[in-house]
User: Fold this.
Amino acid sequence: MTIRMVYFAWVRERIGTGEESVAPPASVVTVADLVGWLAETSEPHAHAFEDRARLRAAVDQEFVSLDTPIGRAQEIAIFPPVTGG
Amino acid sequence: MTIRMVYFAWVRERIGTGEESVAPPASVVTVADLVGWLAETSEPHAHAFEDRARLRAAVDQEFVSLDTPIGRAQEIAIFPPVTGG
Amino acid sequence: MIHISVQQSAIDIAAEMTRAEAAGAGAVATFTGLVRADDGVGTLELEHYPGATEAALLRVAEQAIERWTLQGAIIVHRVGPMHPGERIVFVAATAAHRGAALEACTYLIDRLKTDAPFWKRETRGATARWVEARDNDHAAAARWDQPET
Amino acid sequence: MIHISVQQSAIDIAAEMTRAEAAGAGAVATFTGLVRADDGVGTLELEHYPGATEAALLRVAEQAIERWTLQGAIIVHRVGPMHPGERIVFVAATAAHRGAALEACTYLIDRLKTDAPFWKRETRGATARWVEARDNDHAAAARWDQPET
Assistant:
């Protein structure tokens, strides 16, 4: 399964790109699993994801907690807490 | 003592004028006394002042209750509850 | 910054917002009251007590500035005849943060409703009537007299 | 009436107020957030999540319309680079009465602060930093989740 990952703010800056396609193994069930797996793929990912408490996520543009199963998601976004307004 | 009376809204309309000068007797101590005395001076005043619960007052442009002494007031206003905004 | 105006002319929102924003803080809350277009009123006429009105509005603005440490408070109230859709009143509160601006804005309009000598007369067809004061305006104003919780 | 806009261009308050007032009700409450001119920020940059942002803002507006029976809700948020004194966000609620308009306006901005995917980066001199989320924004948003008292 290929998932489109999108990143924003300092998560995007640390990873060095705003989006990428990934194909996680079957052992990746939740968003937190996905983040953990990605953190092992490169130093920039590890740096971006080092403090899980500061990460938020959206699955197919719906905001979710990190323990949410990714199911058959097409797009998963990882970003810091929002600061608009 | 001469006092400038000013009237607004339906109080003004019933009395037929927006202002007048009056010289109440010494027995008039409070705003309520003044209203009672004026109500006896003419039919329009009596009509304007017939329901005291619907009257509000200002003494020298300060909003006061009707039991306030008029003291040495120069201007006393009588009007309905306000409805701005 | 305090700006008070009781005026015959139409209320210019863009000009008032520029004034509110010029205070240099991060948050501006406003309230605009309009002649309702949906209840059959043809003309609304606003009478006021010249001199006493401006003094009352200034007092309301000063109280808001002090209570919420505002950078600015604006109260503009129209008088004379006006028509459905036109602005009767505009208030604005400028503050460093949104909570203060929003609360102070509510305070300005709640207090204005009970503390400033304006009277409305509505004309529907051939019939004119003076608008009656509403008890819940007094309830809205009175809640600001409660001790802070 | 719901109007949502996420835009690079400056926010035109007069145009948005005309839109809010056109809903035909008696009360319009607005909140405007500005880049503060007083704390040394040279440039503020707003990043967002295209598509998800508009959907989140629409949901906030729909919730406000339903909860307060509004005639209209407007949310306009700027993105990209901006400077001190410029408007970041404008929200407006149009209702028959002022209580509903003022409460709904507060709801719109409180919810937007926590529910919409925007991120602010401030540049002061040569230093850029991402603004940290504030706990009290979550407290402000959460109070709308309480059962009505």
Q: What stands out?
A: The beta strands of chain B are 3-7, 19-22, 56-59, 62-64, 75-79. Chain B is about 25% helix and 25% strand. Chains B and A do not touch (no CB pair under 8 Å).
